Please model this.
Amino acid sequence: MIDWPHWLPLLAVLPLVGGVLTPLLFHRLPNAACFWAASIAALTLAVAVALLVRLLASGGFGYAVGGWLPQYGIELRFDEIGALAVAAGFIALLSLVFSRHYVARAVEPDRAPLYYALVLINLGGLNGFLVTGDLFNLFVFMEIFSVSAYALVAMARAPIAALAALKYLLLGALSSLLVLFSVGVVFAMTGTLNIEDAAVLLDASSAMPAGLALAGLATGFAVKAALFPVHFWLPDAHAAAPAPVSAILSALVVKAGVVGLLRTLELFAGGDDLLQPLLTLIVWLGALGALGGALMALVQRDIKRMLAYSTVANIGYIFIGLGLATASAVSGAMVHSVNHAVMKSALFLAAGAIIHRTGLRNIDDLRGLGRRMPITAFGMAVALIALSGVPPAAGFVGKWQIALGALEAGQPWLVAVLVVAGIVVLAFGVRVINALYFRPPARVPVASAIEVPASMWLPVLLLAVASLALGLAGTPMLAFVGPAVQSVYGTIP
Amino acid sequence: MPELVDIRPLLAVLASLLCAGAVFTVRRSARWRAFWSLAAAGIKFALVWSMLPGILAGRVYAYQFGELLPGVAFGFRVDALGLFFALVSSTLWVLTTIYALAYMRNSHSLHRFFGFFALCISTTVGIAFAENLLTLFVFYELLTVCTYPLIMHNENLEARRAGRKYLVYTLSGGGLILAGMLAVYFMTGTLSLAEAGILDASIPHAWLLAIFVLLIAGFGVKAALMPLHAWLPAAMVAPTPVSALLHAVAVVKAGVFGILRTIYNVFGVDLLRDLGYAHWLAMLAGTVILIASVKALRQTNFKARLAWSTISQLSYIVLAAALLAPLAALAAIMHIANQAFAKITMFFVAGAIERATGKTRVDQLAGIGRQMPWTMASFTLASLSFMGVPLMAGFVTKWYLSLGALQAGSGIFVGVMVLSGLLNASYWLPMVYQAWFRPPADTGANLVPVSPMMVVPILVCAGYVILLGIGANAPAMPFSVAEAAARFAFELKVPLE
Model:
């Protein structure tokens, strides 16, 4: 059963087909559409878990689409990086469950089925992106999850949503163009679109075209990942989107940019001369992003914008880890991608629950909410503390490993960056916690607020508990991504 | 040294964690809240004391489970130093809980208060029993998180300011410790606290210096080592039991304990003696002792005077540890208990006077000895102990510290001891004099009777101050544990004297 080969394509096909069918089947039935979408997401999660079990048992494996052998046909591969699909399925499922009550208010009622369709299509695009071994497919799936993301941002009722979506779309389209162009260059140089094959054939010594392709791919994926200084689309888009969408965008969609960069590094594994400057650059940009994002988060008043800037900071951490290119730093960055996904989705969903109940999103207005909405507030407090890297919660694993990598790479100043950024993150976390728990209510909606229904608090609570529990699973997770580190970077210290 | 696998260290941490969970869920019933709070303190007390005979017999209890990070286990290991700290804190916790139950009656959000209160003892014992630096750091940071709601308990502007200051200081300190710990791990590949020193002289000196500065400054924040002390006087806005907890037991002692671990288990006395850094730390601590005493002299608020006195007293421990002499080490470890019992007595007294009369200033105490004789008698004993009068706990510290200073060839610190004793006398004696020998300013008719649940802990603590002073060598007293810890640090087989 586990070894059935067709699980792998199903991972992408199931949500894509399910998504396309949603508006057709449930045109006027938003509740049924929600149930349907959540079921599809649950099935997708089950498929991802089955794949993960096989991966743990027997290592990475591939799948030849339509029976055409790799190099000639399209190849899907499931490796440790692709295992992010499990986190994607989990978070998408919880976001969909959360959406049932949320969307009824946040989105025009007749658009609700469309909303669920887009979330599923987004998940399908993400999963396809994670498991494809083909460069052109990488681009296609990227377009699928990007375009659905633009539409999802625009779906919020706030007037700023359309503008934010437009900004997101313009930047996204630019990055897609760069990626497409670079894929073309690689194809012209090697005559193949299979990533493994192209990595062997690519003549990295010819600086000009290969360097151009590398620059194009890296820039394109950096925009998708919101690496400083091409992050400026993110705060608007993530703050304006409906909260469950913000959760998916911040937790998963930006991570696709990280995965894209990892695939790029895999592709250029032979060309050290080209890679070294890039890695140095992303360490610096990551450091600037980590500090800048954390400081910008500190001065935000809108809770969702604050969380969005914190994503910029965490992407900064991850890129520092990838750029340091030591085994501990890279594995730490990979694990932090997952851990951050869990913590940030908990936070966005909790913020969504608060906005759903009170309509308030200014941090100072949330005073006294800890007594009115105890579970939501608890989830938010726990996730904020975890995010700041207080041990033994989930944020600590990545911080420790990346800082250790900085020492190994002979760059101790980065330890200071990580420590300072961590303290700043905690500072804005404390602002929120203070408001929730230690101040009397200042606004009418707070005084009359009650806890959200279970379909909303349960996802928040699950994710908050997971953000504590994942911190204890640091060692197995780091061991798990070990092979992926070796396959992307070769043998590194 | 035989190392036994034993689940008690884990149980000791877990027991009050679970009780804390129960306290959080009890919203209405004050009786059940009291029950679970006392259970948290009592079970822990029993478990910790039950390990005393084994430790005295030279055993070490350990319990490990899994790795927190690759190469760093998450585990507990009870050695003499750790047990000593745990004995002091778990004993005082029982008394503080009883006192707090009476003191906090009629306050708001009590489930939150006592829930976090119970969590604090859990994390403190976790610090004491940590097998390695990372485990210690985990509980150290959790302690910060758990004390924050206690400082913020009053929920007013002053409390928020104090809370913010506390967090900024302690979390920055945590960041320094993290960086230092990373450097230790990077250089040695281990964070174990089971050895008498894991660093060695083959490591580049720039790294050793960086590690020393990072770890001492990081732990120094909670130990209120000047100039990193400013959070401590500010945190006085918290309710009195919390101040007692912060100042006498959990928080500051966690910082001091971290410094002791850094000196004895991370560096080791031999390496530090060769490096010479400890000399500078001793000079700093000596200066802090005197400056903080002078500052205490100038305070008029009762609790503020106590706070500055704490800063001064904590530096006794740092100084004694930094002297790197066996007898001074004994003084350092003993003073964890001596300072804790005497200082907590004073805090309890301050709280009782505030509850009974509403007075919070040191110049309002005229004649209060006649109105509250038992309370003020305890206060007098504690202040005599701080002055270093023989038969009191403080004298034991001063005696061994001075001997240690001579052993280390730094006779100047004997002078510091004398001077500090005089300064202590000059700010405690006037209060004692006022309380006993001045006529009361009012008739005492509007005196609110103080609950016996507050008076009894005061008397017990004061009794302990005498016990520690005259019966330090008695079999059931923690003195022998402290001696075992000092012997381990200096790798001596024979008794110290």
Notes: The mean pLDDT of chain A is 88. The two ends of chain A are 38 Å apart (CA to CA). The first strand of chain A starts at residue 61 and ends at 64.
